[in-house]
Amino acid sequence: MRRLSKIAVIAFLLILVFSPCATAIVFINEVFINPPGISSEGDANLEFIELFGTPNKKLDGYAVAVFNGTQAKYYPLGSVILSLPSPSPEIDQFFSLDGLALGKNGLLVLIIRDPSLFYFNEILDDSDWVNWNTLWYSGLAAASQLDNNGSFTISIIRNRPGITEADPSNAEGLRWAKEIAHDAELFTPVEGPDETLMDQFGDGNFDRADPNGMGGNTIDMTGLETGGMSNDLEVIDEVSFEDQKGWEYDSDGRHVDFGSTFGGLPHRHVHAIDDPVNFNPDALTRVDYRTKGPGWAPSGGGTGEMANGNNWPDTATEQWIRGDTESGFIPEFPIAPVYFFENIADGDPNAVQPWETHVPLWLDDGNAPDYDFTTRRSYMLGPGRINPLAIPFIPGDTDRDGVCDQNDIDKLVAEFGEDDWIFSNSFYDAPEGDGDSNEPAIQTRPWDLDGTGENGIEASDLQWVLNFQGDTTGQIIGIRYDSTTPAAAGVYLNSNSGTVSTITTTVNIPSGRPLSGVIEDDIIEVIVNGQLTTGANVTSNQENGIMQFVHDIAISAGGIIEVTGVEALGSFTTTRDSLQAPQGSNGDLEIDLVNGYTTDFTQGLAAPAALYKITLKVVGTGSANVTISPAGMAKFAASTPQGAKIGHTNNNGNPASSVYPTALAVTAIPPTADFDSDGDVDGDDYAILANCWGTQLGDGDYNPLCDIGLPPDNKINFIDLEEFTSQWLIGT
């Protein structure tokens, strides 16, 4: 069994979930649902929802929704009418995350009260927090305590349609809010344990782009035809559990097992934890963001949905510690009680584990278990702190294999620049996929890793993968992951203060003509170089060389020169050729989004490094300036404002500033060998050159028109003939 060293535990950083990204780059990490004690001292002061993901990631467009699934899966025959039963399935809480961001250690805590009123030890300075009573709740009902009755489902959602905090007058109206019914499908089981228990309200799925049938609002889910994918909701992460045969919800069409108590009712879903026997969990703590195992054998001789015949692994059960809680004191924080999972016996003979806390089986293998059941208060709830037994999350580990490597780079590069590419859950109903099989263990969730607030995949997302390549800890050195100690091992992300990237150019014209006197069909090769001229760090494993570029190449006037090629140089490779879009006629005005990356941290530290080559061709006469600048597309301007990324650096790898070269001034002139000025170079011009042959300055027959060799030497000889030949028939 895999054991976690103390260093790995202390050092651990982040966790993930939207598969496509089933690991998202922000996900639910810990929830305190039902603190023990009376309501005024427990729920009203201590409830929290902790999110985890890429450090400093902005959460504009995201929200947390908590679903109440009622206390029963079934209702007496004929009792379901066209009004919601009581208690009804509803969105119990809704918290908009617009304007918020994850902390610099990747943690954000939504709490019902300010930390000063917590009974917990204080939240770390490297974690962010917000009082959820101050968040936008969409207008139906104000935020309050979590409903402890019935089943419980919590989701992170994104890209919700209708009214939002930023768009309160949206014509689609309120589509997501507290107390909106999310399941109004009337479902009648094929069979039941009692003929009087036949009607079923709901089917266990969030309604998908359908009216609820009862005059209320709708929930618009990804993949359904609702006017295009641009307004489809995405479920980024979710976890749920039942309470006394309650009804948990899911957005995923995959089943886990045949766990329903009554035949004919839908099976549990992949994000629902296995039902604890004899207790309703007070808290959930995630310890892994990857699904483990080959699935479970179906019961009763049934057939599972996986290729091997098993049912899907239960991703929630495989990832979460869940159980009842109790309070106690610790020496580090003696003035107030803190809370722990309750390690007392569960006497129910049907319990999966004989405790009132359940843990993933890989944490309790019976030989040398990671989780300590023998000590009563061994695992503390700690909002704003890393879970001690958690598997490290690595920013950019898009395939969730525990290391950030070339496979992850390839995945991001393949979709680099996509405007809003979301890798949906890769099960058979998924509208989109990334080539992964249906296996949850290799799914990924949205890959928008960075902190820019953009939804597409761009340079800031890729920079996280590049920075963490080869890392297995997910740590950023210097960030506090426990109460006292910064991480001592992991990846350096040094300050970008004072860093300056300088972009320069070198020009080569094979014909030998100057930029001020090129002629039609001349080739101009512009080599673009980059160097970190200020703030360079050459310390081993901290090098901050230039690693990415995203530029626009503008040509000020059309019909003079055009772009014929772009070639990444040295250790750089083009990120995505299709982004490099010529503008005007055959690229005679601009080429946008010239982009590339390297996995080498040392480029441009000691001297300018060649990034790429632009090949231009002269196609007419006149003057034009060629300007290199950071990419202007809104997404790239926000994520890569300096047009370059540097390694091992915070602020998503952006240098503090950049210097760009002055525009290249190109002047294209008529062919110099067109001696008779008829618009072409032909035999008539050759006859004039022959008359000049062999003369030099001072000879009576010398004609300066014929001295076209470069550079002019005041003689008419083979140099001039060679130049004449190179211009033969230009302009015809």
Description:
The chain is mainly beta and 732 residues long. It folds into 3 domains: 1-477, no CATH class; 500-668, Immunoglobulin-like (Sandwich); 683-726, no CATH class. Helix content is 8%, strand content 22%. It has 8 helices and 27 strands. The chain has helices at residues 6-11, 43-46, 315-319, 406-414, 459-467, 634-639, 683-692, 718-726, and strands at 26-32, 48-53, 62-68, 90-96, 107-111, 128-131, 152-158, 186-187, 200-201, 234-241, 283-286, 320-323, 325-330, 333-341, 357-358, 500-508, 523-534, 546-555, 561-568, 573-574, 581-583, 590-597, 609-618, 622-630, 644-646, 657-659, 664-668. A hairpin with a 2-residue loop joins β13 and β14 (333-341). α4 (406-414) runs antiparallel to α5 (459-467).
